[in-house]
Amino acid sequence: MSTNVLRTPGGTSRSSEAESGGGWWVVRDDRAVRVDTKAVTTAELLADRAAIQEAAASGESGTPVAGLVALPPVTTPCRVVAQMVNYRSHAKDSGFTGDIPPTFFRKASGSVSGPHETIVRPAHVKFLDYEVELGLVMGATLPVGTVVEERDLPRYVAGLVLTNDVSARDVQLTKTQFYESKSYPTFTPTGPYLALLEPEDFTHLINLRLRLNVNGVPRQDRTLADMIVRPAQALTLLARFQTLDPGDLLLTGTPGGTALKAPPKPVAKIGALLPPAVRWKAFFNSQARNPRYLHNGDVITATIATPDGRIDLGEQRTPVADAT
């Protein structure tokens, strides 16, 4: 069974004074036991698995999880890499047909934020979108040239996190700029839990179900069976040119249901005949009538778990606010 780990600011509860240093906790049901470790970064924690195991086996009653303030369990700076269009349902929504070449992009690690932290929309962004994604947290260095088979995943991947690849669609589309459009502060809510996996847990990844609601209304709901390039193959492709180290994060794509969708084919064909400036103006005028984009005061909830609860990454609850 996987072991859920929580990070807090000094391991403090909302009702107590802050302590010095960061706090790591092993979560057992609705209570958490403090990990006796000097680790500050995620990579350092992963190197101290004995302390995690000791906390997991402890007979302590622990502290109520509800009283702890969750920080992202992936510490920064780190590499944050993401896969583009990696679910069949998302490919359909995006208007792709035929084979889709595997594509990666980077996000600034400064975009990583807590699982309940407010997502802040920059003043110049009009079309703010959501993308629930499974994040792989590396537990060992993946050198350039590595070939990863399914049986090798436990060697390189330490655990999983729930993430949201928040996207400024107007920046992304008009500038064809993924790095900027997905790297603003608070644009990668992460956590609450880092689920550390045992080797036998990896066979259950296919059953993980990704769900995202906005204001209680379902928007995204798929399992990893909808995924195009699965984790072992993704790491192999990424390792053609990119080294990853312990504590680095790979976002593995989002299912269909985002606010952004490709226009109908007849509309797209007509639009292709227009000058770029006119085409973009028409496209964003149509998007302005789309109520699914995020607005000030919206609340996003997201979960990733297997039906049997063997792997459960917890729940994100993130409000949205305009920059002041």
Describe the structure concisely for a colleague.
This protein has helices at 42-46, 49-57, 88-93, 153-156, 169-175, 178-181, 231-238, 265-272, 276-287; strands at 3-8, 23-28, 31-34, 63-64, 80-84, 103-107, 112-113, 119-121, 128-129, 132-138, 157-164, 167-168, 188-189, 194-196, 209-214, 217-223, 249-251, 299-305, 312-322. The chain is α+β, with helices and mostly antiparallel strands and 324 residues long.
SSE order: EEEHHEEHEEEEEHEEHHEEEEHEHHEE
Assess the beta-strand content as a share of residues: 25-35%
Apparent shape: globular
Number of helices: 9
Structural class: alpha+beta
CATH topology of the largest domain: Fumarylacetoacetate hydrolase, domain 2
- Uncertain spans, ≥5 residues at pLDDT below 50? 11-21, 266-271
Mean pLDDT comes to 91
Biggest sheet strand line-up: 4-3-2-1-14-11-10-17-5-6
Number of domains: 2
Q: What's the story with the biggest beta sheet?
A: 10 strands, mixed
**What is the distance, rounded to the nearest whole angstrom, between the alpha carbons of the first and last residues?**
44 Å
Cα-atom radius of gyration: 20 Å
Number of strands: 19
CATH superfamily of the largest domain: Fumarylacetoacetase-like, C-terminal domain
